[in-house]
Amino acid sequence: MNSDNFGFGTQIRKSPFFDATVRWGARDFSVYNHMYIPRDFGDPEQNFWNLVNDAILCDVAVERQVEITGPDAAQFVQFLTPRNLSAMAVGQCKYILITNADGGLLNDPVLLKLAEDHFWISLADSDILLWAQGVAVHSGFDVNIREPDVSPLQLQGPKSGQVMQALFGEGINDLRYYWLREYQLDGIPLLVSRTGWSSELGYEIYLKDGSRGNELWDKIMAVGEPLGLKPGHTSSIRRIEGGMLSYHADADINTNPFELRFDRLVDLDMTADFIGKSALQRIYKEGVARMQVGLVVEGAPLKGPNTTFWPVKIQGRDIGKVTSAVYSPRLKQNIALAMVSSDVAATGNEVDVDASFGNTRAKIVDYPFYDPKKKVASS
User: Fold this and answer.
1) Full residue range of the structural domain in which residue 361 is found
2) DSSP assignment, residue 89?
3) Cα separation values, 181 from 93, 112, 201, Å
4) Residue 350 lies in a domain
5) Do 293 and 378 share a domain, yes or no?
6) Of the residues 201, 220, 239, which one is the last residue of a structural domain?
7) What is the number of structural domains in the chain?
8) Among 236, 242, 270, 320, which one is most buried in terms of CB atoms within 10 A?
């Protein structure tokens, strides 16, 4: 298939790996952060099994980087997030929340600390580059904010470690969960982190020269294919099993961290100020009116993830919505994330769901649905 057949015009960017993914079987794309992301390499269930049994390579260049440098970079980054970063070391990564003045969630990225005055914010799907530049204008902080020439790949799955060892040598085995390291692969400049959007053992490989995207993809596949590596796409099945958020689906600007049970990512007592601190202090004191929950949904296996929000009810009363739903072939259940009224959010409660296929029953359950302690990813 010719990669020129895809497109809405030049306003939607193609990643440095775009042509390679088409050559390796990408059939369809969606748009994320104003870029194309591969969403179809064939049967999504097979893609899931490839991920959890072997390894997959995914083009996630859509995870654009906001680079923050300058004398006040560390203070400025702390100003953007309610997570306490005071103990964050150079070479470490942190999952953070970015909130607005009302405590609403703008993004849930991974923060990478390359130096004391050098950070990358690896984004979910929203325009944080513009937000950060706007915040900086009258902040008084001495910082430089830009989007660098950086494009990540995700290498995820139980065999990802073997592939990485074949690429970079045995030293890669010492890279700890949520830490990073810089590498060269045959002269290609890279940064590698033990992170990913899969809840599996995995790595993200950040390409720092966009002209070498096809070369990097082919090098990884050439080494990895004999070890079981397949081209793939981020798995909705696995991320919902792992209770991982999809921004715009499970959270948005009107969602606060406490509704998502993210208390651990909010430090209301730290000395440092951050955007939304007073609002989050008030919300914490008053309590929240709704909470995210996990659901097991009755009925035949879903044919794919939901594409609309499904109303959730108890005895005819609207109490919330299903935000993400999918059939898990491993758990042999339809599983879902939902946002519901706090007064009915207890585990074990039964609810009605107006699903796209008709009305059905569901039960509120503990989540993440699989490996809740993230032992697989952190092993």
Assistant:
1) 289-379
2) P
3) 11, 10, 17
4) yes
5) yes
6) 239
7) 3
8) 320
Query: If you compute the radius of gyration of the chain from its CA atoms, what whole number of angstroms results?
Result: 21
The CB-side HSE value for 137 (13 A sphere, CA atoms) comes to: 6
Do 206 and 342 fall into the same domain? no
Is pTM beyond 0.85? Reply is yes
Give the torsion through C-alpha atoms of 122, 368, 331, 378, to 10 deg: 60
Which residue type does 290 have?
R
Cβ–Cβ < 8 Å for 35, 61: yes
Total H helices, total E strands in the chain: 9, 21
Alpha carbon distance 77, 86 (integer Å): 11
pLDDT digits (tens, 9 = 90+) for 129-158: 999 999 999 999 999 999 999 999 999 999
Residues 55 and 194 in one domain: yes
Residue-wise pLDDT for 64-105, tens only, equals 999 999 999 999 999 999 999 999 999 999 999 999 999 999
Tokens, residue 242: 């792992």
Q: In angstroms, rounded to a whole number, what is the distance separating the alpha carbons of residues 177 and 314?
A: 41
